[in-house]
């Protein structure tokens, strides 16, 4: 077997390493933090097969190292394995947990949310302009626009008061970080659960027309339908996944368009839509790079590579999106006019199969509105620093940059 690819806990741009790994094959051995051996599925076709394979589970009882007591407290990826929510459940448990929140993400509900998203977008653009004026013409688009938009939307769905939102974002960032110390990881997870517990307690006393109140009611009516750990795990997942993915998506799309002005011209000429910008960004610079975890329940061969039972496997979304076998020799080129692909090679960056991202329609809606309104109001918007100087996420799970300084040019 090849020497395992050693993930840098500090993150960094994944694409050069992904390209090298793909030349070796669609599945690669990897070394996770703590010298734990794992695997990553990188090729598009192999990943699509793996995500729906009946011999692959999400429940951490199949995680051999965890089961054997070899995962220490504070391991930076522990939350992905141990959170008691739909992303770590299989079969009937997964369907039960997913059904409790699915009504908040229907197509009808998305259209009902649209006016509120448009209004919030306009307000945030006003705030972005004020920030730029106060900061010498340059503002951090990620801080003032790309983050508060999805955080505001998911908070409204959950009924989370505005005073909690900045802290929830800070804690979410620590939960998905891969360079965090064990002590900080434990503290961040405990505080996140404590903050969400405070929110849940307030909702239990004064229920509202929101998802948190509905989940509490489901727990109170039938603890077998939703246990207390599952309630808290679901809230953790809703907050973290409900804004981090869309935050990265908007940030990456703005970076891509600023670095490829010809592609922005295609949109303005009517040769591509803002929706197609979102789809190409999802493919070309996936907001989640390597998502933990899935576990073969028995020894499994994927694209000619053996993955032993109980191995923690990461879904290599950022690699699959630029797989030449799926997208041709120009897979590394950002092209909003790229011909539509059949379902067989559609982007996997928001998942596939039973665990397909429940919030995918909401993420697409938010990003499409955000990009259209942003570049309509500031058509000459540009990066205020060279792309290469942007500090990356301290994570090989999330894929984006920490800040996005821009000049707002009308």
Automatic annotation (TrEMBL):
<keyword id="KW-0560">Oxidoreductase</keyword>
<keyword id="KW-0408">Iron</keyword>
<dbReference type="GO" id="GO:0016705">
    <property type="term" value="F:oxidoreductase activity, acting on paired donors, with incorporation or reduction of molecular oxygen"/>
</dbReference>
<dbReference type="Pfam" id="PF00067">
    <property type="entry name" value="p450"/>
</dbReference>
<protein>
    <submittedName>
        <fullName>Cytochrome P450</fullName>
    </submittedName>
</protein>
<dbReference type="GO" id="GO:0020037">
    <property type="term" value="F:heme binding"/>
</dbReference>
<keyword id="KW-0503">Monooxygenase</keyword>
<dbReference type="InterPro" id="IPR001128">
    <property type="entry name" value="Cyt_P450"/>
</dbReference>
<dbReference type="GO" id="GO:0004497">
    <property type="term" value="F:monooxygenase activity"/>
</dbReference>
<dbReference type="InterPro" id="IPR002397">
    <property type="entry name" value="Cyt_P450_B"/>
</dbReference>
<keyword id="KW-0479">Metal-binding</keyword>
<comment type="similarity">
    <text>Belongs to the cytochrome P450 family.</text>
</comment>
<dbReference type="InterPro" id="IPR036396">
    <property type="entry name" value="Cyt_P450_sf"/>
</dbReference>
<dbReference type="GO" id="GO:0005506">
    <property type="term" value="F:iron ion binding"/>
</dbReference>
<keyword id="KW-0349">Heme</keyword>
